[in-house]
Automatic annotation (TrEMBL):
<dbReference type="GO" id="GO:0046872">
    <property type="term" value="F:metal ion binding"/>
</dbReference>
<keyword id="KW-0408">Iron</keyword>
<dbReference type="InterPro" id="IPR036909">
    <property type="entry name" value="Cyt_c-like_dom_sf"/>
</dbReference>
<protein>
    <submittedName>
        <fullName>Cytochrome c</fullName>
    </submittedName>
</protein>
<feature type="region of interest" description="Disordered">
    <location>
        <begin position="175"/>
        <end position="212"/>
    </location>
</feature>
<keyword id="KW-0249">Electron transport</keyword>
<feature type="domain" description="Cytochrome c">
    <location>
        <begin position="72"/>
        <end position="175"/>
    </location>
</feature>
<keyword id="KW-0813">Transport</keyword>
<dbReference type="GO" id="GO:0009055">
    <property type="term" value="F:electron transfer activity"/>
</dbReference>
<keyword id="KW-0479">Metal-binding</keyword>
<dbReference type="GO" id="GO:0020037">
    <property type="term" value="F:heme binding"/>
</dbReference>
<dbReference type="InterPro" id="IPR009056">
    <property type="entry name" value="Cyt_c-like_dom"/>
</dbReference>
<feature type="compositionally biased region" description="Low complexity">
    <location>
        <begin position="184"/>
        <end position="212"/>
    </location>
</feature>
<dbReference type="InterPro" id="IPR002327">
    <property type="entry name" value="Cyt_c_1A/1B"/>
</dbReference>
<dbReference type="Pfam" id="PF00034">
    <property type="entry name" value="Cytochrom_C"/>
</dbReference>
<keyword id="KW-0349">Heme</keyword>
Length: 212
């Protein structure tokens, strides 16, 4: 065999041997055992997941409407109603605009105003014979597109409890026979939001607060 080949092979084997020896020696010198107990546990991901489940398990708590209406001001609600008038009329026998006329809206069947073409989302929400009782109005006016998935109403909602309660108190007056106010003693039952279809949509620019 060529002596140069022998020298090359020997050099290669020697290099491999040296590298393996250094690797084994380094492992022995720098190796450390895993601690029996971690100094701290990273739980951010788990906590976030648990929070997500909690958030998705139901709607955020909303103050019962009976409590809100106990101190509501219908006169102040009439001023809030001006936000609605671009899309809704409020007089008896009033015309439908972008949204339906809101006369006698309290306890009216959902998607039940004659002559108005309701969105598919509102028709779905109406299934089961729902009516616009005080509690449904409270949740819907808080976040329309969250409470009724697919509604065509482009309104971001009234986030302030007093403003929303004042408006509902005023809507109650738009009737020949205003509905009785809910009793605050029933607020334990009202604390659970009425059933609504799931779904979330981005908030749209503020327009008119009513059922479309």
């Amino acid at each position: 065999m060529n002596p140069y080949v022998n020298m090359g092979v020997g050099a290669l084997l020697g290099t491999v041997f040296v590298l393996m020896s250094v690797s084994i020696a380094s492992e022995g010198i720098f190796h450390s055992e895993a601690p029996e107990k971690e100094g701290f546990a990273i739980v951010a991901a788990e906590a976030a997941a648990e929070g997500g489940e909690a958030a998705g398990s139901g709607e955020a708590a909303v103050t019962p409407i009976a409590t809100l209406l106990a101190s509501a001001d219908a006169g102040a609600g009439e001023a809030v109603f001006k936000k609605c008038q671009a899309c809704h009329s409020g007089e008896k026998g009033g015309p439908n605009k972008v949204g339906p006329d809101l006369w006698d809206i309290v306890n009216r069947p959902v998607a039940g105003h004659e002559g108005f073409s309701y969105s598919a989302g509102m028709k779905t929400f109406a299934e089961g014979g729902k009516t616009w009782d005080f509690e449904h109005l409270n949740h819907f006016l808080l976040a329309p597109k969250k409470y009724v998935a697919g509604t065509a109403m482009g309104f971001a909602g009234l986030k302030k409890d007093d403003e929303r309660a004042n408006l509902i108190a005023y809507l109650r007056t738009l009737s020949d026979n205003p509905a009785p106010l809910p009793s605050p003693s029933a607020e334990g039952a009202e604390a659970t939001p009425p059933a609504a279809p799931e779904g979330t949509a981005p908030a749209a620019p503020e327009a008119a607060p009513a059922a479309q």
